[in-house]
């Protein structure tokens, strides 16, 4: 026991002596500014090599001084449109306009000159005797039409080629547009036998607008009656037109062919009869053929003896 204690004491004294001897080296490792002597990196080549660089094809040159340079304005390339000239010539027109009751006072006469540069127009009014004239006009192609806004029209415009210095007489007669209703059909392009289909008979009336043109407006409230001899109506055969002038009916085709309808339209107490051809009746299309499924050539073959549901003997 004494020997062990003696050995431990000797070791402790030796450790303290070693620390005292090495104290300066330990302190210098933290305080000295000396560089490390050597690094050893295994397997890494730290040698440097220069990569060859091709000479640049670009050359930097000083920019010119443009402060004293004058800039020329850009030339205007916008095409110039010459306005069609109406006056300034010695051509002229004159005439008389009559209406259903004789000479039409206050009727509008519209004159349009057509050129490659465009169209320009002017207009004048008739006097109490229905007479009018327009002078001092340029020669050329002219279009003339007369009307009373929202009332009468002279129909299609008349076209004249007038030379400078020429005077043309244009007499026109204005009338009311036709009072016959405009009857039309709206429906499918074709109908299948035995299948109900809806179609509409549209009714419109002609009138003259503020520019003297004939326009068609819906004849709302008109009574429309239809009769069919080769198809079956599945709705009422007398219908009142809606706000859009449409009277709707339901019909079923009975046989292949093109059915027709007899239509009677009553508008403002006047009844007009007409015939309407419906869309062709076609047979029921055949059912689609079953889709053919091609066998997968990559599918594994199945032994019929191992198929489920089959008994093996």
Q: How many helices in DSSP terms?
A: 1
Oligomeric organization of the protein chains: single chain
* CATH architectural designation of the domain at 182-282: Sandwich
What ranges have pLDDT less than 50 throughout 5 or more consecutive residues?
A: none
The ordered H/E elements are HEEEEEEEEEEEEEEEEEEEEE
Rg computed from alpha carbons, rounded to a whole number of angstroms: 52 Å
Could you tell me the CATH topology label of the domain at 182-282. Answer: Immunoglobulin-like
Total number of β-strand segments? 21
Helix content: under 10%
Q: What is the overall pLDDT average?
A: 81
Beta-strand proportion: 35-45%
**Globular, elongated, flat, extended or rod-shaped: what is the shape?**
flat
Largest sheet: 5 strands, mixed
Question: What is the CATH C level class of the domain at 182-282, in words?
Answer: Mainly Beta
Which structural class should the secondary elements be placed in?
mainly beta
Distance between the termini: 96 Å
Properties at a glance:
1 helix, 21 strands, five-stranded antiparallel β-sheet, Immunoglobulin-like, five-stranded mixed β-sheet, 313 residues, mainly beta
Q: Explain this structure to me?
A:
The protein is mainly β and 313 residues long. Among the domains are: 87-173, Carboxypeptidase-like, regulatory domain (Immunoglobulin-like); 182-282, Immunoglobulin-like (Sandwich), CATH 2.60.40.1080. Helices cover 10% and strands 39% of the residues. It is built from 1 helix and 21 strands. The strands form 5 sheets. Strands 1, 2, 5, 9 and 10 form a 5-stranded mixed β-sheet that branches. Strands 3, 4, 6, 7 and 8 form a 5-stranded antiparallel β-sheet that branches. Strands 11, 13, 14, 16 and 18 form a 5-stranded antiparallel β-sheet that branches. It starts with a helix and ends in a 31-residue tail after the last strand.
């Amino acid at each position: 026991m004494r020997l062990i204690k003696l050995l431990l004491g000797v070791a402790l004294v030796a450790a303290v002596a070693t620390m005292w001897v090495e104290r300066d080296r330990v302190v210098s490792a933290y305080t000295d500014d000396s560089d490390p002597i050597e690094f050893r990196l295994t397997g890494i080549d730290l040698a440097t090599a220069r990569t060859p660089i091709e000479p640049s094809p670009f050359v930097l040159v000083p920019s010119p001084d443009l402060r004293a340079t004058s800039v020329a304005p850009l030339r205007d390339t916008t095409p110039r449109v010459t306005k069609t000239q109406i006056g300034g010539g010695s051509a002229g027109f004159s005439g008389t306009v009559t209406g259903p009751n004789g000479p039409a006072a206050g009727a509008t006469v519209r004159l349009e000159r057509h050129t490659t540069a465009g169209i320009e127009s002017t207009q004048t009014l008739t006097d109490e005797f229905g007479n009018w004239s327009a002078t001092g006009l340029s020669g050329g192609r002219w279009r003339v039409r007369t009307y009373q806004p929202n009332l009468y029209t002279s129909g299609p415009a008349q076209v004249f080629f007038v030379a400078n210095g020429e005077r043309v007489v244009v007499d026109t007669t204005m009338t009311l547009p036709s009072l016959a209703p405009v009857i039309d059909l709206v429906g499918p392009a074709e109908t299948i036998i035995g299948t109900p289909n809806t179609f509409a008979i549209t009714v419109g009336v002609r009138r003259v607008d503020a520019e003297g043109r004939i326009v068609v407006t819906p004849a709302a409230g008109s009574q429309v009656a239809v009769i069919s001899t080769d198809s079956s109506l599945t709705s009422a055969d007398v219908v009142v037109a809606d706000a859009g002038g449409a009277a709707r009916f339901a019909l079923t085709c009975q046989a292949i062919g093109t059915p027709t309808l007899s239509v009677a339209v009553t508008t403002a107490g006047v009844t007009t009869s007409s015939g309407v051809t419906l869309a062709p009746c076609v047979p029921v299309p055949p059912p689609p053929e079953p889709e053919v499924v091609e066998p997968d050539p990559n599918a594994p073959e199945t032994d019929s003896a191992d198929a489920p549901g089959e008994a093996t003997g």
